[in-house]
Amino acid sequence: MSEGTRWKGKLGEAVVIVASILLAFWIDAWWVGREEARDERESLELLSRDLNAAIVQLTEFADFAQQVGTEGLEAAEALSTGDVHDHRQLSRMIQRASDRKTVALPTAAYTDLVSTGTLRLVRNRDLRDAIVRFYESAEIAQRILEKNSSLFLDGHIYSFYADGLLMWRVDEPWGHREAQVVATEKAAEQLSEDFEYPPDYFWSLPTNSLEWHRLRSSLSVTAHTLFMGREYALEVIEDARTLDAEVRKELEAR
Description:
It contains 7 helices and no strands. Helix 1 runs antiparallel to helix 7. It has one domain. It is mainly alpha-helical.
């Protein structure tokens, strides 16, 4: 065998080896890309699920804030005009104004995207930026709702019950959560049929007293805070719907 033939054989072997290596790299890259595409799709599907769960929760909060805020204003107006004929019914309205609904937006999918570095797998840069912006603004809105609840709501109406001016009543479910309803029913079972609540000390005070003024003011602050919270909730709902539409559009394109 001539020297030239020998070199051609070695060159052919080298080409085959290099081609095999390149093919292996290509197959590995193809497989990794396929796995990443699958992870991206699963992450976006979970993100869409969380967004829709957030929309449901915020819609419930907005409805709650509208209802309770409206009743609070109605109670404040009744106290302001002195048009108070049914103390028991008005006490119930005031009691409902002291109820609270916590907002805890689901963030499991987004937290997983960030903590595992999977966010980089979202190939659409604009969508990736939109996801980050939404959760940053949603977190701020949730923090505002929590602060408003602790600073402006908690303690306002509750202080009248703590001071003994008004009585908590358990003759009808007043809560908006199942646990409260069950607790109310259990408490009611322990009361005899002829049980009567002691009179509210508040109603024995003159309408121009400091306590009446405080309660009117507290009801107005509560209503205003709830209405403001409702607006925050509606803004986040709109942003969540917009982002979800973008996520679904991306999924359909895959």
